[in-house]
Design goal:
The chain has one domain. Helix content is about 50%, strand content about 10%. The chain contains nine helices and three strands. A three-stranded mixed sheet has the order 1-3-2, covered by helices on one side. Strand 2 and strand 3 form a beta hairpin. The chain is globular and about 50 Å long.
């Protein structure tokens, strides 16, 4: 599934439940509810654990499969400010849509992923392809690139977009970056999640 299609799907589920317009920003609770309502994932329950994590890890996702249900577990670094915690929770929830065949099957392969994650150059620069897709998917779900481009075309700046959509300015700056928008536009044409 393309990340733009995934975002539209989650926005449609929220719209069906609450009547909120598709394309308006989604908050963490709305994303959570939409993920659980989605027929595009086999996750039945999402647990969030906020705890100390080794720097620079902000979050991690694990999937637990039982015979009768699947649980997604999101671990989030408690040292993060609340707005970054929410972003990380949404980013990690995007892994609910990763096919089970793409998960690390052994502790050694999981260790390789963790090693790659801690070598990153800065916040949300990625060394792991699955995390790269999750970051872009989270940005697209929080506020679709088409909404951002529409607002930018009428000369709204990032602070106005943040205010209009009740986003913290740091999150708005992250998801309104030119490279993020460009990758999300390309993903609407090329990429599958």
């Amino acid at each position: 599934m393309k990340i733009t299609a995934l975002a539209q799907h989650l926005h449609q589920l929220r719209h069906n439940r609450s009547g909120r317009a598709i394309g308006n920003s989604m908050q963490v609770a709305e994303v959570w509810n939409s993920v659980l309502e989605s027929d595009k994932t086999s996750i039945d329950q999402i647990d969030v654990v906020i705890e100390d994590m080794p720097s620079p890890v902000d979050g991690m996702f694990s999937r637990i499969a039982y015979p009768d249900k699947e649980i997604g577990v999101v671990h989030v670094n408690k040292k993060l400010p609340e707005h970054w915690r929410d972003f990380v929770i949404i980013k990690e929830m995007m892994h609910c849509f990763t096919p089970l065949s793409r998960y690390c099957p052994t502790p050694d392969s999981a260790n390789d992923v963790l090693t790659s994650l801690v070598k990153r150059a800065g916040r949300y620069t990625t060394n792991v392809a699955a995390d790269n897709v999750a970051i872009l998917a989270a940005a697209e779900v929080i506020l679709p690139h088409t909404t951002i481009l529409s607002l930018l075309s009428v000369n709204q700046d990032v602070m106005q977009i943040a205010t209009r959509h009740n986003l913290h300015h740091e999150i708005a700056e992250e998801i309104c970056r030119v490279d993020s928008i460009s990758w999300r536009r390309k993903a609407s044409i090329l990429g599958d999640f």
